[in-house]
Structures are given as C-alpha cells and as structure tokens.
UniProtKB/TrEMBL annotation:
Keywords: Cell inner membrane, Cell membrane, Membrane, Transmembrane, Transmembrane helix
Transmembrane segments: 169-192, 204-224, 262-292, 312-331, 352-371
Protein name, UniProt field: ABC transporter permease
Role of this protein: Could be part of an ABC transporter complex.
Pfam families noted in UniProt: MlaE
The organism's taxonomic lineage, starting at the top: Bacteria, Pseudomonadati, Pseudomonadota, Alphaproteobacteria, Hyphomonadales
Database matches in NCBIfam families: MlaE family lipid ABC transporter permease subunit
Organism whose genome encodes this protein: Hyphomonas hirschiana VP5
Location in the cell: Cell inner membrane
GO CC terms in record: ATP-binding cassette (ABC) transporter complex
A GO MF label: phospholipid transporter activity
Signal peptide bounds: none
InterPro entries for the chain: ABC_MlaE_roteobac (IPR003453), Permease_MalE (IPR030802), STAS_dom_sf (IPR036513)
Main location: membrane
Length: 375
C-alpha cells in the first residue's frame, strides 16, 4: 500500500508574480479535500506553478490544476518553477484533452428571443408536417404495391398486430366508452329534467356516441396505448441495429415493419369503434333505465326512430383515418430513434403527443366537412 502525503497548496505573491506552490501527493486518492479550497483561489490569477515540493501526480491531480488555471483565466501554459519528472508533460496532455463544460446559457425572456423561439417553432412544425406527408406517401405506395402482390404481405405479422393492438385493447376501450356513455346520460338527464324534456336524453346519447365519442375515444386510447407500443418496438429494434441488419439482408423496413402495422390498424380500428359505440350506448341506457325509468326496449326503439343511421356511418367513416394516422406517426417516430435510451424516450413521448394532436385536429376537419355537406 502506498504511503501518500496529504496534498497542499499556497498562493503567494512574490517578485515573480502570483505563484501557486504545490506540495504533497496530488492523486485521485488525496485531491478530494482540495476541491473546494482550489475554487476559492478564483480571486487571484496565478502566473507561476512551483512544483519543487510536489510528490506524486496523476491525471486527476493534473485535471484539478488545469481546472484552476482555466477558471481563473490564467495564461497557458504556466511557467513552471522547480523540477518534477512528469508535471509539465502530464499538465500539457490533460489540458489538450480536457473538455470543460460550458456554463449554462441564461434564458432570454426578451421580445426578440420570444420571436426567435416562435419562428424556430414554426419552421420545425413546417418541416415535421412535410416529413410526415412524405412518409404517408411512401407508406401508401408500399401498401398498394404489396396489395398488388399479396404473396409478399407478411400475414403472420398482420394477424399478430391485430391481436396485440386490437383484441387486447378492446376491454379498456369498451369499459371507458361505457362509463363515458353513463356520464353523458347523467348530464343530459339532470339538465333536461328542469324542462321536463328528459326523454330527449336518448337522442343526446345516440348522437354523441354514434357520431363523436365512440370514434374519438377509440382514437385517443389507441394514441396512448398502441402508438407508444409501436414506437417503442421499432425504436428498440433501431437501437439494437436490427433495422440496419434487416436492410443488409435486403429487407425493406417499410415492408416488414410499417405496412403490417398500418394494415392491421386499418382493419381493427373500425371494429374497436363499433365496440366503443355499443358500449357507450349501453352505458347511457343503463343510466336512463336507473334514473329515468326508461326500460331498454323503449330506449332502443326511440333511438332507432329518432337517431338517423347516418350518424353511425359518419362516426365509422373516421375510424380508418384515425387508425392510419396513429400507425403512421408511431412507425415514423420509431424509425427516427437514435442509439440512446434518451432518444427512445423522446421519440415515444413525441409520438403520443403528435397522435393525440392529429386525432383532435382531424376530427375537427371532419366536423367542418360534414357540416358543409349538411350531415
């Protein structure tokens, strides 16, 4: 075991200027006690380094000396006084390879900085939209090519994704829609009762669940559950360089990873929307039966007579679009994952946020479109 001498230093003002005199052993085992003391030297700028009393010196000790020189803004290299076997060369190497962390930039809260951030955000939004549309076009071309050559479709992957993203998601979507239908019925019954119009709760449940809530709830659940799952799966494969290996073998990620997921979602999202709509209507019927004494037979008969079937098809028409958007955003973000876990986490978060944002915006566009058609 080495017998190490405690390190020491002194900053002295002499005829040669400020001299930092070192003593003892400056190694990784001893320098921890000097860290705070050396930071206090920042008030004076050393010019010379006296190593005549210096014992052992390793890269940790040299880094501490180099950091002191940098923080004080002293000229480099220091003028070394005294003899030491390795001090000069070790300090030179540490200074050449050390990469000090720059101080964090202060947040600028001025008007120009705000305009700059707004401009950068707008440019990023434009680039992201353009890249997403390009990915959409590439995906559609791939799907059309595979549908023309169905023997190239990966049916096993499609069925597996349908089970994972569709059947496994069905219970949570059904339960969520059932309780939302109950809430809508309860609010409608409470409000319309003041006007003796509580019977119109049936119309409220029918229009809201068939046209909007069934498909929107399905889209949001898929955006939170399936979307993040797709991004994490593809992103993990990208981190492990499995996607690169796939391309080396002549397999296209669009054929193997993207197309099966998109096709599975195009099939399963309308089915999930149908289940969500039925569950929501069942929740509303339960509240109508319990609170308004409207038995299920009367509820169904009145809904059949007062709610046009067009409302059901309007809701169902949105579901393939929502499924396509969720799968596209998830796959694109997954393929953009880099080689770090931070990149995977950022891509997953971005994917979910973009999917929810897209579903709400597209639903609003559909509402305007059908309003213009008079539906």
């Amino acid at each position: 075991m080495l017998n190490l001498t405690a390190p020491s230093f002194a900053l002295e003002d002499s005829d040669e200027g400020n001299v930092l005199r070192l003593g003892g052993d400056w190694t990784v085992a001893t320098i921890n006690q000097l860290d705070a003391q050396l930071r206090a030297v920042s008030q004076s700028v050393p010019i010379c380094l006296d190593v005549s009393g210096l014992g052992r010196l390793d890269t940790s000790g040299a880094y501490l000396i180099d950091r002191t020189w940098r923080e004080n803004g002293a000229a480099w290299p220091p003028r070394i006084v005294g003899d030491h076997a390795s001090a000069a060369s070790l300090l030179e190497q540490v200074h050449a390879h050390a990469e000090p962390v720059p101080p964090p930039a202060k947040a600028d809260a001025g008007l120009l900085a705000m305009l700059e951030r707004t401009g950068k955000g707008s440019v990023d939004f434009y680039k992201e939209t353009t890249a997403s549309l390009a990915f959409l076009g590439e995906t559609l071309v791939t799907i059309v090519r595979l549908l023309v050559q169905p023997w190239k479709l990966r049916w096993t992957s499609i069925v597996a994704v349908m089970e994972e993203a569709g059947l496994n998601a069905m219970p949570i979507i059904a339960f969520l829609s059932f309780f939302v239908g109950m809430v809508v019925a309860f609010i409608g019954a409470t409000t319309l009762k003041d006007f003796d119009l509580e019977i119109y709760t049936i119309e409220l449940i029918g229009f809201s669940m068939l046209r909007e809530f069934g498909v929107v709830l399905t889209g949001i659940v898929l955006a939170g559950r399936t979307n993040s799952s797709f991004t994490a799966q593809i992103g993990t494969m990208k981190m492990r360089q499995e996607v690169d290996a796939m391309q080396t073998l002549g397999l296209k990620p669009m054929d193997v990873l993207v197309a099966p997921r998109v096709l599975a979602m195009l099939v399963m999202t309308p089915i999930l929307t149908f289940v969500a709509t039925l569950a929501g209507v069942a929740g509303g019927a339960t509240v109508a039966w319990a609170a308004l004494d409207i038995n299920p037979a009367v509820f169904v008969e009145r809904m059949r007579n007062s709610v046009p079937i067009d409302q059901f098809w309007i809701g169902m028409s949105k579901s393939p679009v929502f499924g396509l958007v969720v799968a596209l955003i998830a796959c694109r973000q997954g393929l953009q994952v880099g080689g770090s876990v931070q990149s995977l986490g950022k891509a997953t978060t971005t994917s979910v946020v973009q999917a929810i944002f897209a579903i709400i915006v597209i639903d609003a566009i559909f509402a305007i479109f059908y309003m213009e058609l008079g539906l």
